[in-house]
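Case study.
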Amino acid sequence: MKVSEILIKRIVKQDRKAQMELYRICFSLLMSVAYRYKKNEEDASALSNEAFLKILTNIEKYNSNSPFESWIRRIAINTAIDDYRKNKKREEMFETEDNFEDLKEVTYNEVDDTIEAEELNNMILALPKATRVVFNLFAVDGYSHKEITEELGIGLETSKWHMKEARKRLKALLIKREELNGVKK
Amino acid sequence: MESKNNIDKLFKDKLGNREFDIKESFLADLEGKLDAQKPKKKLWRMFFYALIALVGVSFFAYYLATNNVKDTIDSKISMEDSKQNVVSNKVKNTEIEGVETESAENIVDLDTKISQKEQLKIDTYTAKETATDRINTELQQEVSKELPDNTSNNKNATKKTKALNNKEEPSISRNGESKASSVNNLEKNVTVASDSQTEVKEETGNSIRPFEKVNEPDLAVKEMNSNNTKASNREIEMVIEKNESISLTEKNLTETENKTLLPVDLDSADTNSSSVVLKDKDKEVVASNKESIEDSISIKEYTNIDPVASLDSVVIDKEITQIVSDAIMQGSLANENEVTTGDLGTNTTEKEIISENDAVPNEEIIDSTILAVDSIVIDSLALEKEISEEFSDTLTKDDSLANKVVLTPEDATLKKWTFSVFGGPSLINKNITGVSSDAYLTKRNDEEANIVSLSYGLRMNYNFNEKINFSLGANSLTYGEDVNYSTIYDTETSISTVSKDSSYLDYIYTAYQDSNGGWDTILTTIVVDTTFMVDTTIININATDYAGKNRFTYFQIPIMFGYKFTFNTLSVNVRLGGSYGILLRNSGSYVDNNVSNIELPNLRKTMINMVASATIAYQLKKMNVFIEPKFRLNSGSIITHPEFQQRYTSIGCNFGLSFHF
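After joint prediction, the assembly is written out as follows.
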């Protein structure tokens, strides 16, 4: 992903066409982040738009020496975290999913090629909100537990607990999926 | 571990970079947000400019207010200077020096101190008046002691004086009627001024010189003769009393006259020598017999003329007159006219002296009388001097107080603004209400510990007056607790449907004879499907421990009203009010209602506290040091929870400094 300096200057000058051009460049990345945190497309798009507004507002602060992609990804993740802080509700935080099992060890190499991103995303969205956020930050976005505790305002043990919980639940879901596929075959 | 990494990698690879198509609805949403962002910026800019303008106006107003205060104080100083010639000069100088050398704080004190000086002066004059009364009383007592034998003479002198003073009532004296009325007339004569003088002037005709103004010592002396000098002392006493402050009451006079005058037989008194000597300032002695002064003086009937004695008495009277006159003049008689006895003047010219001899002149008595008078006069002078010195001392003390600039907390309170910085520990305690589960409440109470958090802040105090003040501040306070949940049972119940395949195969061999006549078999496979589903209930129990620190930090803006009590250099300011809190950061988790998991609390972003405090301040030279016990209580639950409310209370003690300006 490359963004020219001319485009950035035009954006600084509030050029609407330049803004839309940047939006098209950033949209997939922003949505790929937002979609892991939000359960539906509308919410995800709203979140990505909010992140994009932050990009426009702060684009003057962008340092051209660092990768633009990393910069906007960071903004998108921070926006998701802020949204989580603002909108976390108790009933969303600890939704329980009872229909999974954790009975046997499986290897995931077999499913790597066949499973779709949409299916994995749905599995993540099936997690309780707090667990989902911690898993996204740790597993996908590359945050450390320490960073997560700082961003979410939770303890280190809490973060680890959520991560453990997420893995357990996702594992159960993957096994279940395999079993269902096996039955189908 | 490998399993964990596999899961993480799977999701990262698949979800890290996905492709999405832009929908029109997304663009429309973005357009709307971009349009809405513009006025928001303008609004913030306007707010920013307004804030700057407000700050500027505030500083300007403060500058003007400060100058006005100084001008007002300067004008007050000028006014007080014009009123207080002696005292306020020192005060003014001292205060102006204070203004120049110290700070504006001292200027504010001027008004109070000047008022205090005014009050002190009033008190001093009141004391002087009281002291004067006391001196008069002492003089009376002294005269009474030193002149114990003069009662009869006083009686006669008084009686005669009344007769002289009241020509229209000669028969009363002559017939020995009640002397009380005569005494009343005397008092009246003493107090009445020039009206009666004019009246008598007409009656005296040519034999009496035109009335000239006679001062009270002369009048008093005029009524003395050698035997009645003691009576003159009585008159002196009266005159002094009159001049000093208050005349004797009628009651006192009446009592005195009743004692002294009633036994006198006026008719028999005629046998005794008695004379009336009229002395002009040009003539030494003018003697007159009963007939010559009959028209004007009624005492002719009981006096005999004794020129020698009268001459002596005149000389003595002159001396006494001079002494008494000096004493009275030094005593700063308030109003000579008030004590001018015009009626007496009817019988005399300016320096006329009327002498009477009821009995044989007694030089010893005269001498003792002179000594007594001298003593009285000297004592009077001494007392006057003492009074003056006393007042002088008082004023000096006053001046010294004025010179001494003592800053008290009360003075400091007069300054309108006080800025304080403080900090200190607070014990945080929580109260959970509305919980239905005893197990949950027990676990929370047993496995969560109160904490002590530090609070820092600053405060701006506005003093409406010495007592009432208003304060606005900012401080941070961290609520929370240390949690140590021993065991959390995470019970997961699931039902698993398992298929049991009980299908089996059976083979049936069927023999048959073929066309050649041989036998063959046919194998027939028979499949029987007996698969059935089995539901299995799986209960998964995970027991975990959790320990952590819950910390919820709020930025608080306290708004409080205070009432101040001042005790010398100590002051106690009791404040009561509320504070608005804004959540700054939070961390921590609680066990959930089922005690089977931990959950993140959903904290309120803002909160209201009730705050009470008592600031105990000690006044230093330029600032106060204070200790401040403080109590805070959440007005509502700090956590949004459908079932219970969690409120925190904090009991703390701040230590700080405050500066007045």
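Observations recorded in class. Chain B has a mean pLDDT of 64. The longest strand of chain B covers residues 532-567. We will return to this complex in the next lecture.
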